[in-house]
Structures are given as C-alpha cells and as structure tokens.
Amino acid sequence: xxxxxxxxxxxxxxxxxxxxxxxxxxxxxxxxxxxxxxxxxxxxxxxxxxxxxxxxxxxxxxxxxxxxxxxxxxxxxxxxxxxxxxxxxxxxxxxxxxxxxxxxxxxxxxxxxxxxxxxxxxxxxxxxxxxxxxxxxxxxxxxxxxxxxxxxxxxxxxxxxxxxxxxxxxxxxxxxxxxxxxx
Length: 183
Ligand code: HEM
Hints:
Elements: E1 4-10, E2 15-24, E3 33-38, E4 49-54, H1 63-72, E5 83-91, H2 93-97, H3 100-110, H4 113-118, E6 125-130, E7 140-146, H5 151-161, E8 170-180
Antiparallel strand pairs: 1-3, 1-4, 2-3, 2-8, 5-7, 5-8, 6-7
Residues 58-61, 69, 87, 89, 91, 113-114, 117-118, 120-121, 124, 126, 128, 140, 142, 157-158, 161 line the site of protoporphyrin IX containing FE.
C-alpha cells in the first residue's frame, strides 16, 4: 500500500462534512463529504477538490518525546471517535528559510507544540501528512479523530496552538470538521 493519500471533497465519502472554516488565507469551497483513499503521485480530478498528502518521517520530535507519544497515543478508527478534523496548513516562506534547529526552537521551546498536544492524548488520535514537496496548495494535512465528549477539549487545543509563535508563520489554514458517515 502506498504512503500517499488523496483527501477528496465531493458528493460521497467515509465522512460527512459539518463545516469548513477558513482560518487564514484562501478558503476551500464547501463540500458535503470527504473521501480518503490510498493514492499515487498522479494528479486526480475527483470531487470539487483533492488534497494529496504523504505519511513521512518525523522532523522535530526528540527521542524522549517520541517515547511519551508512543506510550499514550491512540490509534485512528476507534469506534467511539465519530468526530474528525482535517486542518490543511501552509507555512510562510519566512518559516522555510529558517534553519532546522531554529524551526525546532520555535516549534517546541517557544510554542510547546508537543508538550501541549500530549495533554490531549489519548482522547485525540492524530496523523500528520506532508505535502510541501508535492507542489500542493498546503504544506501539511493534519488529521484528528475524537469522541463527541472530547470535542470541547479539541477546540481548546486548537485555540491554544493558534496563539503560539509557531502559528505566526501559518499563512493559510482551513478548518474542516467531520462526522463519520453511516455505512
Ligand atoms: C492532539 C495533540 C497533538 C500532538 C500530540 C501533536 C504532536 C505533533 C508532533 C510530535 C509533531 C512533530 C512531527 C515531527 O517531528 O515532524 C507535530 C507537527 C505538526 N502538528 Fe501537531 N500535535 C497535536 C495537535 C495539533 C493540532 C490540533 C494541529 C493543527 C491545528 C497540529 C498541527 C501540526 C502541524 C502543522 C505540524 C507540522 C509542523 C511542521 O513540520 O512545521 N497539531 N505535531
């Protein structure tokens, strides 16, 4: 199975879209459903839009953080996690011009992305897809799954991250919320 995935907004899919909020920059048009399929590098023209992302290696996570994450994180597709968020994000050229160690400082020493995120595990299950090197409109597709009872906690986390130094480098962000479609 490929590590490349297409997130297609259109008339059918495993997830029903409840809202699409443009947080910063250009919005995405509203669609009723989201379908996620294993894909290839070939451009696909399904649905109203398709965002391509690849599962990749970690860039910033240090060993002790990786161990903590692995010991508490939940898997995707838990039956109770009927809510999801797809948050595509692009960072500015100023971010990409920085050296790797300066980016890590902003990401963790200044913004505490992992330290904060860890507090919301295992309630929130997550997966990061990269797309900057695929000439896609976003740099990352971030994916989260949670039970309805954890929806408020997820809002709090997202709100908090958006106030950080890291987020000053986010120049496009769209917040797509979903509910698992009945089979
Ligand atoms: C649920 C708790 C969360 C945890 C534990 C968490 C953890 C992480 C970790 C460990 C990385 C670094 C991966 C690497 O080493 O390359 C990362 C990257 C990232 N996360 Fe989170 N995260 C969480 C929530 C969020 C949320 C809610 C958002 C969006 C609103 C988000 C957006 C991102 C983005 C865009 C990156 C890539 C940053 C970059 O490479 O510049 N994360 N996250």
